């Protein structure tokens, strides 16, 4: 073990007691809960969590130990998975210019209920936010069907077909529609990048790490398949 590394089962090597560790874990859990409450659905950056440890401790691996313990306690006490997200890289291109590029390798965390989907839908999910979840699903679906990347103009063309206009600031469910899309970006379902093309700069939307999650991706593909199956009989009937 390299100097400065910490064995999670032998904290005496780090001159930190179990009480100190538990205090750090509790502080990190409070930070997660506060951030999630303050900005629902927006991942908490790893840097924000590790600063809670590094402001008073210099042991290199101690933040990872505290995060691991916080994950275990969220699961055992609250029934939440403190899920780590790895920020997606923009598509490889020498012409991509985005502030996100400097953070492509940064990690963040969200809290996900560990209840089975049926119980989670019935007992946990907030029905008041169901419209926004539907919007998120629609946007991710459009980007998914476009091959994982779509031009901004094309995205808005499809959203206008759903009755959503980028200039609408008083939508009955979403308020400012453009701000709603920005919230989906902050929640890391999609990411926005500026690309320099032959006709100038264009905005491109791509799937981000939460949309690439195996469960979310699987549910999306299943729903798209069901929609296609429902449309096939109608098409055949119209051709008959």
UniProtKB/TrEMBL annotation:
One of its GO terms (cellular component) is nucleus. PROSITE patterns: MAGE. Gene3D superfamilies: MAGE homology domain, winged helix WH1 motif, MAGE homology domain, winged helix WH2 motif. PANTHER family: MELANOMA-ASSOCIATED ANTIGEN MAGE ANTIGEN (PTHR11736), NSE3 HOMOLOG, SMC5-SMC6 COMPLEX COMPONENT (PTHR11736:SF14). This is MAGE domain-containing protein. It comes from the Eukaryota. Signal peptide: none annotated. Residues 43-231 form the MAGE domain. Pfam families: MAGE (PF01454).
């Amino acid at each position: 073990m390299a100097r400065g590394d910490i064995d999670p089962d032998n904290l005496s090597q780090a001159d930190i007691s179990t009480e100190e560790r538990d205090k750090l874990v509790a502080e990190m859990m409070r930070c997660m809960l506060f951030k999630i409450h303050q900005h629902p659905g927006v991942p908490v950056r790893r840097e924000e969590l590790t600063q809670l440890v590094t402001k008073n401790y210099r042991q290199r691996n101690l933040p990872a130990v505290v995060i691991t313990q916080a994950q275990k306690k969220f699961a055992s006490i609250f029934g939440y998975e403190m899920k780590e997200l790895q920020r997606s890289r923009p598509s490889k291109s020498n012409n991509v210019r985005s502030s996100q590029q400097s953070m492509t390798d940064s990690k963040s965390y969200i809290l996900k209920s560990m209840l089975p989907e049926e119980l989670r839908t019935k007992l946990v999910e907030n029905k008041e936010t169901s419209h926004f979840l539907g919007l998120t699903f629609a946007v991710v679906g459009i980007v998914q069907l476009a091959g994982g990347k779509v031009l901004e103009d094309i995205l808005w063309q499809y959203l206008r077909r759903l009755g959503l206009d980028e200039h609408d600031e008083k939508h009955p469910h979403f308020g400012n529609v453009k701000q709603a899309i920005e919230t989906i970006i902050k929640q890391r379902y999609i990411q926005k990048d500026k690309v320099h093309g032959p006709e100038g700069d264009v905005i491109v939307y791509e799937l981000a790490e939460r949309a690439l999650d195996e469960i979310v991706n699987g549910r999306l593909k299943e729903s798209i398949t069901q929609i296609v199956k429902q449309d096939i009989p109608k098409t055949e009937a119209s051709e008959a």
